């Protein structure tokens, strides 16, 4: 029996057939994908489109904000008094540290200048509010309500009251995109506060704890150690709390220990964030040495060190 | 195919189609987080699929591709990801529309699930190739939720097309 086609023959030709259209648009899509992932040609287009869409996105946020405002209006007075008392107690606990801080900083700067080292403190910080998380289930991003109009540039660190949240990656006029600590493409150079071991914390994607990679099994890291930024690489200012070690696995035969850490920031889902100013630029790295020297240098930089 | 067997529908107005697409884009832009975000059905894909099946002359592969670009820009994802997925979805809808329309509403939903799964799979595949991590398995539950909305959507979208009863009808 002759094969009966699924579609009747086309009586009226209305332009190219669907398959021709699909091929055409498919090829254009692939070209766009390539241009976007490899060459980043489309950042300008995305910037303009982001500016155009910003009012639409604010409009869509309005119902949610209205509901949140109504909810806070009806908050119990007891609850408010309790929160107030908690905050005052926390402030009091941090008072000695805060009051000593300018003195310590001055002393530190003086000592560093004596040793001819450059003090690298971040510039003024900007307060911002988290608008919403990115709607892409593949990457961990957050949107805040300050943009280039407030002086933000890509690369600034973002923290909340408990620790590092992430880094500003894209800046629009009135809004910025922050890549979170847990994003797969994000890495923070950290230092264990207790022992001084340096390592790098890599994000592992949605729902998974970030992990410290390339740490030797003999490194001095235990459960519940607090990890702070080490300030190497000039992106994050040193000394900011990042995460707390959740599990350490040292298996014989494995070259590296498997260490997972829980981020400290966002523990209370805070909406209020601080964007730190950029750290003073590092001097450019030295040029690659000739082959004879490279054997002597070994692995430098952010590699793991057993001792400081 | 109209809902009732004896009803002949009026044609869909282009403004209504545009309105539904705009509402779908707005629904896709809702700021949801966490599990709700993973389970949220892709409203634009669903509405696009509906109009490709019912009004293929108004919405075709080209319109689907443009909508995909709009979604890419709005969602700050890689450019061309949703565009490719929606273009393929529109083509599949145009090819299979006669078969889909031959079934009652409940069984249409079963066929729609497969098309939406393919669309979601293309989106995930493109992102993973671009370097993102593989999404949690709940991401592939959203086409089922979208397909569950299909019968309701069909009834609601066909409401403006119902013919007016004239008084002279017996």
Could you characterize what this model shows?
The complex is a heterodimer of chains A (308) and B (170). Mean pLDDT of chain A is 80; it is low at 297-308. In chain A, a hairpin with a 4-residue loop joins strand 4 and strand 5 (176-180). Chain A contains four helices and twelve strands. Chain A has helices at residues 18-39, 43-73, 77-114, 291-297, and strands spanning 126-133, 141-144, 157-159, 164-171, 176-180, 187-192, 198-202, 211-215, 226-229, 241-249, 257-263, 272-275. With 308 residues, chain A is an alpha+beta fold. At the A-B interface, helix 1, helix 2 and strand 1 of A face helix 4, helix 5 and helix 6 of B.
Query: For this structure, what is the CATH class of the largest domain in chain A?
Result: Mainly Beta
CATH-derived topology of the largest domain in chain A: Thrombin, subunit H
- At CATH level 2, the architecture of the largest domain in chain A is Beta Barrel
Terminal-residue CA separation of chain A: 81 Å
Rg of chain B is 17 Å
**Percent range for helical residues of chain B?**
55-70%
Beta strands of chain B, count:
0
The total of helices of chain B stands at 7
How would you describe the oligomerization state of the chains in this entry? heterodimer
Computed structural class of chain A: alpha+beta
